[in-house]
Amino acid sequence: MATIVCSKEASECLEQTYNYIARDNLTAAFKVVDGIYEKVQVLSHLPQTGHPLDVVADREIRETLCGSCRIAYLIRSPSSVEIPGIFHDAMNIEEIIPFWDRS
Questions:
Q1: pLDDT, tens digit, for every residue of 31-80?
Q2: DSSP sequence for 67-101
Q3: pLDDT classification of 102: cutoffs 50, 70, 90
Q4: Residue 60 — left, alpha, or beta (φ > 0 → left; ψ -120 to 50 → alpha)?
Q5: Residue 61: its pLDDT value, please?
Q6: How many alpha carbons fall within 13 Å on the CB side of residue 81?
Q7: Which of 3, 72, 73, 76 is 20 to 30 A (C-alpha) from 56?
């Protein structure tokens, strides 16, 4: 099982998503965040399940979908997965990813 490390940016995005949805529907906000959490737990067991992002294939950045959110992650090793960001599906993730050079 891989250890999951969530970046500060990903944590902030998740909190912002929760707060935005909670303004209208607290139950829905909880369900969205809970769904993302469950999806991340799957990555700890099966990190290869996501789709490779071709624009950064050399860095093994992959993504998995959860509702209208995209969870981007790096497979650092078989025992380490880093989540640099969680984004709404409408965002252009390819424009943001080049800033994630965390070698």
A1: 999 999 999 999 999 998 898 876 555 667 888 999 888 898 988 888 89
A2: TTEEEEEEEEETTEEEEEEEEETTS-HHHHGGG--
A3: very low
A4: left
A5: 83
A6: 26
A7: 3
Q: Of the candidates 62, 66, 40, 42, which has an alpha carbon nearest to the alpha carbon of residue 52?
A: 62
According to CATH, the topology of domain 3-99 is YaeB-like fold (3.30.2310)
Q: CB–CB of 49/39 below 8 Å?
A: no
How does DSSP assign 16-46, residue by residue? HHHHHHHTT-HHHHHHHHHHHHHHHHHHHH-
Domain ranges of the chain: 3-99
What residues does 71 pair with on adjacent strands? 64, 86
